[in-house]
Write a structure and sequence with these properties.
The protein has about 625 residues and is α+β, with helices and mostly antiparallel strands. About 25% of the residues lie in helices and about 30% in strands. The two termini are about 50 Å apart. About 45% of the residues are buried. Helix 12 packs antiparallel against helix 14. A hairpin with a 4-residue loop joins strand 24 and strand 25. The strands form seven sheets. The protein has an eight-stranded antiparallel sheet with strand order 11-10-16-7-8-15-12-13. A six-stranded mixed sheet has the order 2-3-1-4-5-6, sandwiched between helices. The longest helix has 18 residues. Guanosine-5'-triphosphate (GTP) binds next to helix 1. The site of guanosine-5'-triphosphate (GTP) has 19 residues, from helix 1. It comes from Winogradskya humida. Belongs to the TRAFAC class translation factor GTPase superfamily. Classic translation factor GTPase family. LepA subfamily. It is a peripheral membrane protein.
Length: about 625
């Protein structure tokens, strides 16, 4: 029989599970999750107000700058119950901060699995958005209790009454049940903390069973190696236990175990329902994967917890150093990033146009952008990235099937079938933009699955779309066609056969691998014309005529010509000033060093960069709203 709760306030170390509430905050990006989390840390006294800095939990520089959460973190806070029969007792709240972007859905879903409840946060000036729905559905799949909360009620544009109704309709409660807070001013946050203790259930588990804990995050730290965040389901894990990873069978010595509040604090053990960290001295997050089950080596559990999935790259792109001598540095940098990112995959590849580089696989576009930005910023590398593409299954007429992650791997000869990955996309828009969104989705070979009115003015549209069609500029287009009002969320939904072709770009008869692309048959011509046109503008005239052609196999579908000329840099320099002439010729020589020879054609580096970026470059941040 469990005894009465002891009223102690020590919240570090094994805690009575009845005291614990594990919860997360789920929200559409920018609806104020991190700000609310900050306010909770402050109100519960976990962070000294003098040390408070905005977005305390977002530790990575890029995160703070972009204001988005990439890696989830967990923090423990005490909260003294203010009313009801448990008044005066200290509850232990474990708040798990989850990433909000579609690329990281798997991480969100694991973080949710570590909780009993979710605070569903909605911006009171914007209402429900696509990721509000996606995250809510994930929370419901994990059987979480939900507290609906409207945030930013301090904003003059806030319409709490209107959106309370929308939110109530969505989750099936009364509008009066929707809490109203401001993460910025702190209004309503204490009441929310009370409700978290009252509404969410305490974790249950078998304290005497063999230990089982789920990994919901795993982060590489330069000084301590991999720090693994776990939620204990059954049993107890003690400092200096030997632990076993159930998916791989690997055994590690536990060097340290503890909780985060808000910095790491060592503890002797973690028991049922507790959330904390473990350090085992492993150096690579791949040995401590999100979703895996940790058990004791001496008394292992028989069955792992469900739901483990290997991270699977969805989008591939080639990364090449602009300066070829940076190749070893790029390899070292990728090796380092891999330590912290189980989803990043890469292998060396060479391109006739770009030299030595790596073919890298990413979870999605934001992931790609984050990795290239970190490579450039943290490792000082200047990179060219090739146009992103998805994974195709190509079956040739002799029934050979190959997986194509790069246009250069596209098989020669007759093709029987090509299969491309698709996604189920949800778009939320105000009424008046429905037509524009439909037009856009149809233009991207979308198939409509359904349409629903969430309120009199907001519509949810569901489409199946080829992933390859949305990794370019879909978000940008969606945003511009809806004046920024649409929000988008998507999840993988299998494969479909498609009429795709490989378009090559030839310079003086030589294919330039970096510009090849796999596109739909109906779009091949446009791609060819626009690429040839771009290159014609970007490549300077040479001493002979250079044709630029776009071709499907041996069939030419577009052509531009760069006319011949020898640029005479001395043309404007009459008279006998030889030193000035020499200077100009030297400068011309300098310029030529930065040229790459593609066959017989000199192409400036900038041409590659410009042709591969500009309007085709996606802006994943645009996917936010
Ligand atoms: N006026 C007002 N602004 C707020 C409030 N809460 C957050 N904001 C602002 O809204 C913006 C987004 O807030 P964040 O806390 O970064 O949002 P988030 O949901 O954590 O975003 P991600 O980390 O990208 O998922 C910031 O500019 C905040 O200052 C609030 O209660 N009132």
């Amino acid at each position: 029989m469990p005894g009465p709760l002891d009223p102690g306030v020590n919240i570090i170390g094994a805690t009575d599970p009845r005291r614990i509430r594990n919860f997360c905050i789920i929200a559409h990006i920018d609806h104020g999750k991190s700000t609310l989390a900050d306010r909770m840390l402050q109100i519960t006294g976990v962070v000294d107000p003098r040390q408070m800095r905005a977005q305390y939990l977002d530790r990575m520089d890029i995160e703070r700058e972009r204001g988005i959460t990439i890696k989830s973190q967990a923090v423990r806070m005490p909260w003294v119950i203010r009313n009801g029969d448990k008044q005066g007792e200290t509850a232990v709240l474990n708040m798990i901060d989850t990433p909000g972007h579609v690329d990281f859905t798997y991480e969100v879903s694991r973080s949710l699995a570590a909780c009993e409840g979710a605070v569903l946060l909605v911006d009171a000036a914007q209402g429900i958005e696509a990721q509000t729905l996606a995250n809510l559905y994930l929370a419901m799949e994990n059987d979480l209790r939900i507290i609906p909360v409207l945030n930013k009620i301090d904003l003059p544009a806030a319409q709490p009454e209107k959106y309370a109704e929308e939110l109530a309709k969505l989750i099936g409660c009364e509008p009066s049940d929707v809490l109203k807070v401001s993460g910025k001013t702190g209004e309503g946050v204490e009441h929310l903390l009370d409700e978290i203790v009252r509404e969410f259930v305490a974790p249950v588990g078998d304290a005497d069973a063999p230990a089982r804990a789920m990994i919901f995050d795993s982060v590489y730290d330069v000084y301590r190696g991999v720090v693994t965040y776990v939620r204990v389901i059954d049993g107890r894990i003690e400092a200096r236990d030997k632990i076993k990873m159930m998916s791989t069978g690997a055994v590690h010595e536990l060097l340290e175990i503890g909780v985060v509040s808000p910095e790491m604090e060592k503890a002797g053990a973690l028991g049922v329902g507790e959330v904390g960290y473990m350090i085992t001295g492993v150096k690579d997050v791949r040995q401590s994967r999100v979703g895996d089950t940790v058990t004791g080596h001496n008394r292992p559990a028989k069955e792992a917890l469900g739901g483990y999935k290997d991270p699977r790259p969805m989008v591939y792109s080639g990364l090449y150093p602009i300066d070829g001598s940076d190749y070893p540095a790029l390899r070292d940098a990728l090796d380092k990033l891999k330590l912290n990112d189980a989803a990043l995959v890469y292998e060396p590849e060479t391109s006739t146009a770009l030299g030595f580089g790596f073919r890298c696989g990413f979870l999605g576009l934001l992931h790609l952008e984050i990795i290239s930005e970190r490579l450039e910023r943290e490792f000082n590398l200047d990179l060219i990235s090739t146009a992103p593409n998805v994974i195709y299954q190509v079956i040739t007429e002799d029934m050979k099937e190959s997986t194509v992650t790069n246009p250069s791997e596209f098989p020669e000869g007759k093709i029987a079938e090509i299969r491309e990955p698709t996604v189920r996309a949800t778009v939320l828009v105000p009424n008046e933009f429905v037509g524009a969104v439909m037009e856009l989705c149809q233009g991207r070979r979308g198939t409509m699955l359904g349409m629903e009115y969430l309120s009199s003015e907001r519509v949810e549209l569901r489409y199946t779309l080829p992933l390859g069609e949305i990794i370019y500029d879909f978000f940008d287009q969606l945003k511009s066609k809806t004046k920024g009002y649409a929000s988008l969320d998507y999840e993988p939904s299998g494969e479909q056969a498609a009429d795709l072709v490989k378009v090559d770009i030839l310079l003086h008869g030589e294919p330039v691998d970096a510009f090849s692309a796999i596109v739909h048959k109906d779009k091949a011509y446009n791609y060819g014309v626009s690429m040839a046109g771009k290159l014609q503008k970007l490549i300077p005239r040479q001493q002979y005529e250079v044709p630029i052609q776009a071709a499907i196999g041996s069939r030419i579908i577009a052509r531009e010509t760069i006319r011949a000329i020898r640029k005479d840099v001395l043309a404007k320099c009459y008279g006998g000033d030889i030193s000035r002439k020499r200077k100009l010729l030297e400068k011309q020589k300098e310029g030529k060093k930065r040229m790459k020879m593609v066959g017989r054609v000199e192409v400036p580096q900038e041409a590659f960069i410009a042709a591969l970026s500009t309007s085709d470059s996606p802006d994943p941040k645009a996917a936010k709203k």
